[in-house]
Amino acid sequence: KQEVTQIPAALSVPEGENLVLNCSFTDSAIYNLQWFRQDPGKGLTSLLLIQSSQREQTSGRLNASLDKSSGRSTLYIAASQPGDSATYLCAVPNTGNQFYFGTGTSLTVIP
Amino acid sequence: DVKVTQSSRYLVKRTGEKVFLECVQDMDHENMFWYRQDPGLGLRLIYFSYDVKMKEKGDIPEGYSVSREKKERFSLILESASTNQTSMYLCASGGGGLSSNQPQHFGDGTRLSIL
């Protein structure tokens, strides 16, 4: 069974810093990997989807990379802002239709 | 814009009641999912559906059933609610192995309390 791990569980940075969130997975036979953010008491918002054939995806200040062979993905956030404070989760689908989620990294950006 | 709508944001029910949670998507997706999210346990899949009237059990189906009579609507049913079903319930639509170019989209969640 796929296992998805996110380290660290929590991260606190001053505003303006660049930061990296990590996601690792045990089974490299993935179709894609998706990054989400979740605000307190809300659902998940899709940020980026990287196909298994891609190495990077970018959206604004966010850049996600994927290294299938090593079972790792990173989410890079440039010039962090207080509005980026949220929990960030990564997820991978298996060969069926099940998704495996990490437990998330809780990010706090201090003004 | 993509839209997944859950019928209630907050719901309070009594032990033993039959509870219905509704979810509607407007993207014509085949796949729809029900998760619950609990502190320290992350998201856990209850059921998913890959077509009308088709369903498969996820990791924690006990005490739940689902209904998908129309493509856009996926309902989660708690047959006889119990206090250990107090949780945040999240509906999602899209994505999955055969739809690998399709992101998964979530509703805003239903915070369900069973008293």
Strand content of chain B: over 45%
How does the major sheet of chain B shape up?
7 strands, mixed
Query: What's the overall geometry of chain B?
Result: globular
- The best one-word shape of chain A is globular
Report the end-to-end length of chain A measured between terminal Cα atoms.
41 Å
Number of helices of chain A: 0
* Low-confidence region ranges of chain A: none
Q: How many whole angstroms does the radius of gyration of chain A measure? A: 13 Å
What's the helical proportion of residues of chain B? under 10%
Content-based structural category of chain B: mainly beta
Structural class of chain A: mainly beta
Runs of chain B in which pLDDT lies below 50 for 5 or more consecutive residues are none
Q: What gyration radius of chain B follows from the Cα positions, in whole Å?
A: 13 Å
Order of helices and strands of chain A: EEEEEEEEEEE
Oligomeric form: heterodimer
Number of strand segments of chain B: 11
Order of helices and strands of chain B: EEEEEEEEEEE
Give an account of the 3D structure:
The complex is a heterodimer of chains A (111) and B (115). Chain A contains no helices and eleven strands. Chain A is an all-beta fold and 111 residues long. In chain A, the strands form two sheets. In chain A, strands 2, 4, 5, 9, 10 and 11 form a six-stranded mixed sheet that branches. In chain A, strands 1-3-8-7-6 form a five-stranded antiparallel sheet, with no helix packed on it. In chain A, a hairpin with a 5-residue loop joins strand 4 (32-38) and strand 5. Chain A is globular. With 115 residues, chain B is mainly β. Chain B contains no helices and eleven strands. Chain B has strands at 4-6, 10-13, 19-25, 32-38, 42-51, 54-57, 64-70, 73-78, 87-93, 105-106, 110-114. In chain B, strands 2, 4, 5, 6, 9, 10 and 11 form a seven-stranded mixed sheet that branches. Chain B has a four-stranded antiparallel sheet with strand order 1-3-8-7, with no helix packed on it. Chain B is globular and about 40 Å long. Chain B starts with a strand and ends with a strand. The mean pLDDT of chain B is 92.
